[in-house]
Amino acid sequence: MFLTLLLQATGGMDYTQLLFPVAIGLVVYFFMIRPQQKRASDAKSFRQSLAKGSRIVTIGGLHGLVVDLTDETVVVEVDRGTKLRFDRSAIAREVGTKKEPGTDTVATT
């Protein structure tokens, strides 16, 4: 069957037939692959920039305060005296940094 398809093919090379698959490849690259690589790069740089005292949220939705860091893990305090160890890859985002005592101000209008 494959041989019959090859025999039915035209003899000349038509470059317009090659244009459509190349265009599809470019669209897939610029709209799917490239943005995903950028998000992964941003997430990696964020996880490397974590510091003690950062308030974070894990991918599971657990909120806490970073109290210790190693190359691979993060120790998060979720309540007074309750510390959990996570991989750095489990940290989803930062929600703010630790506030110093006495810096809470109430705005009056």
Description of the structure:
The chain has 109 residues and is an alpha+beta fold. The protein folds into two domains: 13-46; 51-94, SH3 type barrels (Roll). Helix content is 38%, strand content 29%. It contains two helices and five strands; from the N terminus they run H-H-E-E-E-E-E. The protein has helices at residues 2-8, 15-48, and strands at 54-58, 63-69, 73-79, 82-87, 91-97. The protein has a five-stranded antiparallel β-sheet, covered by helices on one side. The radius of gyration is 26 Å and the shape is rod-shaped. The termini are far apart. Mean pLDDT is 83; it is low at 101-109. One of its GO terms (cellular component) is plasma membrane. It is found in: Cell membrane. It holds the Pfam family YajC. The chain crosses the membrane at residues 15-33. Its main location: membrane.
Describe how the helices and strands are arranged.
Elements lengths: L1 H7 L6 H34 L5 E5 L4 E7 L3 E7 L2 E6 L3 E7 L12
Antiparallel strand pairs: 1-2, 1-5, 2-3, 3-4
Structural class: alpha+beta
- Helix count from the secondary structure assignment: 2
Distance between the termini: 82 Å
Q: Average pLDDT value?
A: 83
| Tally of discrete structural domains | 2
Using DSSP, what is the number of strands?
Answer: 5
Main sheet, how many strands, which sense, barrel? 5 strands, antiparallel
Widest β-sheet, arrangement of strands: 4-3-2-1-5
**CATH third-level topology of the largest domain:** SH3 type barrels
Q: Tell me the fraction of residues in β-strands, as a range.
A: 25-35%
Write down the overall geometry. rod-shaped
User: What would you say the CATH architecture of the largest domain is?
Assistant: Roll
Low-confidence runs: 101-109
**Element-level helix/strand string:** HHEEEEE
Question: What percentage of residues falls in helices of 4 or more residues?
Answer: 25-40%
Organism: Hymenobacter lapidarius
Keywords: Cell membrane, Membrane, Protein transport, Translocation, Transmembrane, Transmembrane helix, Transport
Main location: membrane
Transmembrane segments: 15-33
